[in-house]
């Protein structure tokens, strides 16, 4: 899986620490990205050693990752809720746990899985931690609504950019068949207000602002990992 941001060792420590919270009989949401992949790796090793869990992937990529590691998987409608979801973030405010996700264009399913879970454990390296959210906000958009959503983002004092896979391949298409508009709002002082405004725009499937979702954050570093609970 493509790596972003900080060191792989820091990401691995965060992913492994979160995976240690998983116990026998749990249904576990499997997040997307290079840090969440370390948690899936650790869960795969635990399953090999006898841990009895079922994983609910948040993307094509995390589904494949779980299959490769021998983790039994199910769709969300096949389990009776989730005990824990483990996922990465593009940026997180350590004080509140509010974060921005969607760098892998998987934030819609990630949010659905997080909402179905008793706990959301966010795993990051220190480069993701900020005092105020100012990362671009990924917005999954139904293709026919793109120009309207871009205008709405501008109306909210943001700058929209359609996410491109590459010049050659054209726009990113999500696992749900939609486009992604990345919106730059600068420093986000009222994340709950912005989240509510974006949710109201016709054609917005989901945005990457996760306000009041996080149960704990695991921040891996070169020499250890810290846990903050909310
Ligand atoms: O939200 C996500 C995918 O939609 C990822 O969790 C987020 O982009 C972090 O990825 P990484 O751990 O590779 O930096």
Task: Write the SSE topology.
Blueprint: H1 8-19, E1 27-30, H2 34-48, E2 54-57, H3 60-68, E3 82-87, E4 91-93, E5 99-100, H4 107-115, E6 117-124, E7 129-130, E8 137-141, H5 146-155, E9 159-162, E10 164-166, E11 170-171, E12 179-184, H6 191-199, E13 204-207, E14 209-210, E15 216-220, E16 225-229
Parallel strand pairs: 1-2, 1-3, 3-6, 4-7, 6-15
Antiparallel strand pairs: 4-5, 5-14, 8-12, 8-13, 9-12, 10-11, 15-16
The structure holds ribulose-5-phosphate (5RP).
Tag the structure with descriptive keywords.
28% helix; binds ribulose-5-phosphate; 6-stranded mixed beta sheet; 4-stranded mixed beta sheet; Ribose-5-phosphate isomerase A; Rossmann fold; 6 helices; 2 domains; NagB/RpiA_transferase-like; 230 residues; Alpha-Beta Plaits; alpha/beta; globular
Query: How confident overall, as mean pLDDT?
Result: 97
Give the SSE string: HEHEHEEEHEEEHEEEEHEEEE
Number of domains: 2
Tell me the β content: 25-35%
Low-confidence regions: none
Second CATH tier, the architecture of the largest domain: 3-Layer(aba) Sandwich
Bound molecules: ribulose-5-phosphate
Please compute the radius of gyration using only Cα atoms.
Answer: 17 Å
| Fraction of residues in H or I helices | 25-40%
What is the 3D form?
A: globular
- Which strand order does the major sheet show? 2-1-3-6-15-16
Number of strands: 16
Report the CATH C-level class of the largest domain: Alpha Beta
């Amino acid at each position: 899986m493509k790596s972003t941001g900080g060191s792989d060792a820091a990401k691995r420590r965060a992913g492994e620490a979160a995976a240690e919270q998983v116990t026998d009989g749990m249904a576990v949401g499997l997040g997307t990205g290079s840090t969440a992949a370390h948690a899936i790796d650790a869960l795969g090793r635990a399953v090999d050693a006898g841990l009895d869990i079922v994983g609910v992937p948040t993307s094509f990529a995390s589904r494949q990752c779980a299959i490769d590691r021998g983790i039994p998987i199910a769709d969300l409608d096949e389990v009776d809720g989730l005990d824990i979801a483990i996922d990465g973030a593009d940026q997180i405010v350590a004080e509140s746990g509010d974060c921005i996700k969607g760098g892998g264009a998987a934030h819609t399913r990630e949010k659905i899985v997080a909402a179905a879970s008793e706990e959301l454990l966010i795993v990051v390296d220190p480069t993701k931690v900020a005092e105020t959210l100012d990362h671009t906000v990924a917005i999954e958009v139904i293709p026919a609504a793109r120009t309207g959503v871009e205008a709405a983002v501008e109306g909210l004092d943001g700058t929209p950019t359609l996410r491109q896979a590459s010049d050659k391949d054209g726009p990113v298409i999500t696992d749900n068949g939609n486009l992604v508009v990345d919106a730059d709002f600068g420093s986000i002082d009222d994340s709950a207000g912005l989240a509510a405004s974006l949710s109201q725009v016709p054609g917005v499937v989901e945005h990457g602002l996760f306000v009041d979702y996080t149960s704990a954050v695991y921040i891996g570093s070169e020499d250890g990992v810290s846990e903050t609970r909310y």
